[in-house]
Amino acid sequence: MEFKAVLKEKASYIEKLLKEYMPKEEGYQKTIMEAMNYSLSAGGKRLRPILTLEACKSVGGDYKDAIPFAMAIEMIHTYSLIHDDLPALDNDDLRRGRKTNHIVFGEDMAILAGDALLNYAFEVMLLGSMNKENPNKYLNAMYEIASAAGINGMIGGQVVDVQSENKKISKEKLDYIHNNKTAAIMIGCMRAGAIIGNANDNELENITKYSKNIGLAFQIVDDILDIVGDESKLGKKVGSDIDNNKSTYPSLIGLEESKEEANRLIKEAKEALTQISNDTEFLSSLADYIVDREY
Amino acid sequence: MEFKAVLKEKASYIEKLLKEYMPKEEGYQKTIMEAMNYSLSAGGKRLRPILTLEACKSVGGDYKDAIPFAMAIEMIHTYSLIHDDLPALDNDDLRRGRKTNHIVFGEDMAILAGDALLNYAFEVMLLGSMNKENPNKYLNAMYEIASAAGINGMIGGQVVDVQSENKKISKEKLDYIHNNKTAAIMIGCMRAGAIIGNANDNELENITKYSKNIGLAFQIVDDILDIVGDESKLGKKVGSDIDNNKSTYPSLIGLEESKEEANRLIKEAKEALTQISNDTEFLSSLADYIVDREY
């Protein structure tokens, strides 16, 4: 099977699981649950939940134990998109060709739906951690997710990104934004998956290296695609970074150098995989896909 | 010591602890941390963290074990106030006589500071739960907080409250709002404290009854004070519920009947305390204070 088809199949599996995990739209909370489900079912690559399960499998764990964490990471990713799209932040009306949450449900419900998804992520992880043989393992995995999503991770990166709008920033600051806004969640979810899969110290170290590198490479490729990408494949306008005067890898170090940096990160990521005991074929192909992708 | 002084002393202790638990305002995230600390240090009764520690003590537990959960519940309460005050929700410029978060830091930072506080609450609880002798106890306590704060608790109540603005609603719906928007968090934090304090089933049941009753009574008294309260003592304008055409206990069942209902709830709450083994003197006085309070 072509890798794109493998990825699509895995995304479908995640979507089936998400439907099972989401609250039913009923009773007094019908509207908020509709708003939560609207954004959670809006598609996307489902990369983060896939990475969570694959990290667990790659160290020989039972991926089923990591499912609640995979669900949670997609809920956290989705809440961050809902809040990012709000008028007070990026003010986007469309995402993946669909109206954004606040356009459909109003700003008040969009704020609350985001809050509800973040909170629900922890409810789901906690339910998946209670009454297990090794509760400390699950507590450690949950802490990986929580710290990756917070001020020393995703939110921290998002804040600095917001504050850097229309400003030329240093490469150091751009690295901080990329490492936190994008890579931290990928590192957190893969470390959580690996911990649940009983990774040893060496494996955990190499899962961390792999996820850090593909996270940063993913963001650099995003920046590159905003310049050279095909709008019909991307499903969004290109050139928005230049229009918004945004500092990016290409604007700071050049287009060719950015491609080289992404390739170097992916090469290192694949080297890290050689230290992992079990099935890493998917993760290796995924690393290649991340630099070769067209959308 | 007069009870008000006891309450104030306990609030001061909570504020001292909050300072220790809050992130330092430094580095790239300085602004978001300032925004988080601004609202978290804005005062208030600190009722929820106090209840968490007292619930733990009342069943003979070591309140120190419950401190991270007490901190977390105040962070969750504070994030909900920051988001409630936003222009898209209540659009309030002032809270407790100080400018609201979005007035000082902007709407974008206020949204992110709220998100950050909710996320940080879980980080703090997780750090306080790892490497303990009985991790399942802490997982259970965390789940109490998480479910009380989510769509089947605080957020659920808030959503229905928002949707009921300028509408006459049924007493059943008003009870749903009060029970979820206000009482759920009080129940959740007291149950968490009691679980950490190793409550037996009977104690947990009675802590639940106590917290449910004082939570609902607290909200009914809030409604009453909005009619008969002294603005100088309350620190806010009275009559806003009537001005906003808001359904309240007094508007639905009358002022006297509302007072009677609050008194009945408090009497029952104090009866529940007789089933608790250890020191319940504070909780008993608190129940009286909740109906007698003037602000």
TrEMBL record, chains A, B:
The reaction(s) annotated as catalysed by this protein in its Swiss-Prot or TrEMBL entry are: isopentenyl diphosphate + (2E)-geranyl diphosphate = (2E,6E)-farnesyl diphosphate + diphosphate
Q: What is its EC number?
A: 2.5.1.10
What's any GO biological process attached to this entry? Answer: terpenoid biosynthetic process
List keywords of the entry alphabetically: Coiled coil, Isoprene biosynthesis, Magnesium, Metal-binding, Transferase
InterPro entries reported for this sequence: Isoprenoid_synthase_dom_sf, Polyprenyl_synt, Polyprenyl_synt_CS, Prenyl_diphosphate_synthase
Which Gene3D superfamilies does UniProt cross-reference here? Answer: Farnesyl Diphosphate Synthase
UniProt GO MF annotations: (2E,6E)-farnesyl diphosphate synthase activity; metal ion binding
> Per the record, a Pfam family?
polyprenyl_synt
What is the top EC class of this enzyme, as a single word? transferase
- Report which superkingdom the organism of origin falls in: Bacteria
Cofactor(s) for this UniProt protein: Mg(2+)
Using the record for this protein, list the coiled-coil segments as residue ranges, or answer none.
Answer: 252-279
| GO-annotated cellular components | cytoplasm
**Of which family is this protein a member?**
Belongs to the FPP/GGPP synthase family.
Name of the protein = Farnesyl diphosphate synthase
Q: Which organism is it from?
A: Romboutsia hominis
Query: What taxonomic classification does the UniProt entry list for its organism?
Result: Bacteria, Bacillati, Bacillota, Clostridia, Peptostreptococcales
